[in-house]
């Protein structure tokens, strides 16, 4: 979700196999560089593998270009990597969020074969995406400060996962501003 | 002198006028006391039943348990209703009060359980009135089991436990829509039952106080709601003693987690690294 010169990216913390919960501290939001984060929902193994591949590509880019990737470029990279596997896809829906030139927040989401969808306010993915759309739509306001953005994102996330059997067991929220990154674990219903 | 078997419990000693006002429910004094419901007229009855079963999506997403101990029966359940992945309610009453000394638990289709438990309550009351004594738990569970067996294969989804206290002491029966009826001391039913069994079997002793037994039941249901995605909401715990049932507690599972595992305040010294200045 986009705020005033900042963005928030959040996920739940459950790792499960259909109805059984295996872990409640699974990390789904990964850092690419200080101002670029990617969240990967869907199959856990594909999320981890995709993250490792993307970090690899970004490090090569850093070596060659001697700078960090811009969020728009990174989104195109993710889209290309996903489309490479068009006929045997990664079962992941990424959510990309970063601060671009002049610290302009950039967010986008994709389906599992790389169709980019840019937005100016918020993007969601996962099993509770329908609930999330509703919650974000009603709670979102433009130009929120980091503290207010954190509250909004946490409330929207918790409200949505409480209506989904397969998501929840806590929340993990990152608030990224040009000068700092705040990482918080949100207490949620553990059922 | 041969004793004639007393079949009076199976007879209906009353005749109810057969009203068929379109909804198809009519009780007939001639047929055995199984309400005959209208069956759909179609070419492929079995296929139709299978399709209805899939549509209704009964997945028994729940956790219920009951056990007998020296002071009666403890019955506990969660309160989540799920339709596939969507949580339709977190406040479902899964312990059904059939009469003041008998409880039934709900697992499977909510409508099925509610209707047939209510129906069982009717039958038990009628038995009481015509025989001037309460029906035993064995008798009540047998009535339900026979009814469910006659509807076997038609897509009813019920996994229930009938728990109560009668002249023989505490009684606990497991009855399901496949027609099974099992007597036992400990049962757990539903998608979260395996997780509940793990905690229940470990902590169970026959001689316990009511508070210890209630805490065991609460802990077992909590454990199941933690691991099973389809169980959650609140834990309700009931105790059935010689004087009837009493609701002991109803706790929200979200709060129960932090009661058992309070959040530890960590004194972490975090290194705040300054991000590189914006003009890169």
From TrEMBL, chain A:
Gene3D superfamilies: Glutamine Phosphoribosylpyrophosphate, subunit 1, domain 1. Pfam families: Proteasome (PF00227). Keywords: Cytoplasm, Nucleus, Proteasome. GO terms for biological process: proteasome-mediated ubiquitin-dependent protein catabolic process. Transmembrane segments: none annotated. Signal peptide: none annotated. PROSITE patterns: PROTEASOME_BETA_2. One of its GO terms (cellular component) is nucleus. InterPro entries: Ntn_hydrolases_N, Proteasome_beta_3, Proteasome_sua/b, Proteasome_suB-type. The keyword Nucleus applies. It is found in: Nucleus. Non-catalytic component of the proteasome, a multicatalytic proteinase complex which is characterized by its ability to cleave peptides with Arg, Phe, Tyr, Leu, and Glu adjacent to the leaving group at neutral or slightly basic pH. The proteasome has an ATP-dependent proteolytic activity. The 26S proteasome consists of a 20S proteasome core and two 19S regulatory subunits. The 20S proteasome core is composed of 28 subunits that are arranged in four stacked rings, resulting in a barrel-shaped structure. The two end rings are each formed by seven alpha subunits, and the two central rings are each formed by seven beta subunits. The catalytic chamber with the active sites is on the inside of the barrel. This is Proteasome subunit beta. It comes from Digitaria exilis.
From TrEMBL, chain B:
The active site is at 62 (nucleophile). InterPro entries: Ntn_hydrolases_N, Pept_T1A_subB, Proteasome_bsu_CS, Proteasome_sua/b, Proteasome_suB-type. Gene3D superfamilies: Glutamine Phosphoribosylpyrophosphate, subunit 1, domain 1. The keyword Ubl conjugation does not apply. It catalyses: Cleavage of peptide bonds with very broad specificity. It is found in: Cytoplasm; Nucleus. One of its GO terms (molecular function) is threonine-type endopeptidase activity. CDD domains: proteasome_beta_type_5 (cd03761). Its main location: cytoplasm. The 26S proteasome consists of a 20S proteasome core and two 19S regulatory subunits. The 20S proteasome core is composed of 28 subunits that are arranged in four stacked rings, resulting in a barrel-shaped structure. The two end rings are each formed by seven alpha subunits, and the two central rings are each formed by seven beta subunits. The catalytic chamber with the active sites is on the inside of the barrel. This is Proteasome subunit beta.
């Amino acid at each position: 979700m986009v705020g005033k010169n900042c963005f928030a990216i959040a996920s739940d913390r459950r790792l499960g196999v259909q109805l059984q919960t295996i872990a409640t501290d699974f990390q789904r939001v990964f850092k690419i560089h200080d101002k670029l984060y990617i969240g990967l929902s869907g199959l856990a193994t594909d999320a981890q593998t995709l993250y490792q591949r993307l970090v690899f590509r970004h490090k090569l880019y850093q070596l060659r270009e001697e700078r960090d990737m811009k969020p728009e470029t990174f989104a195109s990279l993710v889209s290309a990597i996903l489309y490479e596997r068009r006929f045997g896809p990664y079962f992941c829906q990424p959510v990309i969020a970063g601060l671009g030139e002049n610290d302009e927040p950039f967010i986008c989401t994709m389906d599992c074969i790389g169709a980019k969808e840019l937005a100016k306010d918020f993007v969601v993915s996962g099993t509770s995406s329908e609930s999330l759309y509703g919650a974000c739509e009603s709670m979102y306001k433009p130009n929120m400060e980091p503290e207010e953005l954190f509250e909004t994102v946490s409330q929207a996330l918790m409200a949505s996962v409480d209506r989904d059997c397969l998501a929840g067991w806590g929340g993990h929220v990152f608030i990224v501003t040009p000068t700092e990154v705040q990482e918080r674990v949100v207490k949620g219903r553990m059922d | 002198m041969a004793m004639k078997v007393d079949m009076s419990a199976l007879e209906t000693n009353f005749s109810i006028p057969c009203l068929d006002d379109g909804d198809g429910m009519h009780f007939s004094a001639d047929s055995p006391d199984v309400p005959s419901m209208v069956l759909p007229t179609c070419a492929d009855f079995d296929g139709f039943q299978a399709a209805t079963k899939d549509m209704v999506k009964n997945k028994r997403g729940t956790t219920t348990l009951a056990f007998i101990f020296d002071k009666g029966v403890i019955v506990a359940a969660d309160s989540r209703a799920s339709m596939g992945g969507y949580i339709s309610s977190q406040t479902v009453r899964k312990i059904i009060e059939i009469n003041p000394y008998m409880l039934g638990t709900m697992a499977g289709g909510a409508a099925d359980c509610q209707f047939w438990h209510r129906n069982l309550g009717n039958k038990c009351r009628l038995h009481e009135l015509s025989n001037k004594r309460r029906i035993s738990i064995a008798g009540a569970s047998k009535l339900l089991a026979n009814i469910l067996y006659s509807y076997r294969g038609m897509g009813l989804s019920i996994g229930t436990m009938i728990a109560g206290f009668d002249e023989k002491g505490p009684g606990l029966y497991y009855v399901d829509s496949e027609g099974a009826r099992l007597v036992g001391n400990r049962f757990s039913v539903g998608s979260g039952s395996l997780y509940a069994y793990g905690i229940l079997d470990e902590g169970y002793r026959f001689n316990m106080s009511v508070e210890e037994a209630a805490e065991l039941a609460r802990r077992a249901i909590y454990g199941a709601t933690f691991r099973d995605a389809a169980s959650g909401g609140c834990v309700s715990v009931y105790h059935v003693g010689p004087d009837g049932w009493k609701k002991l507690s109803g706790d929200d599972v979200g709060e129960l987690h932090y009661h058992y595992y309070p959040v530890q305040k960590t004194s972490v010294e975090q290194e705040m690294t300054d991000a590189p200045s914006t003009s890169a």
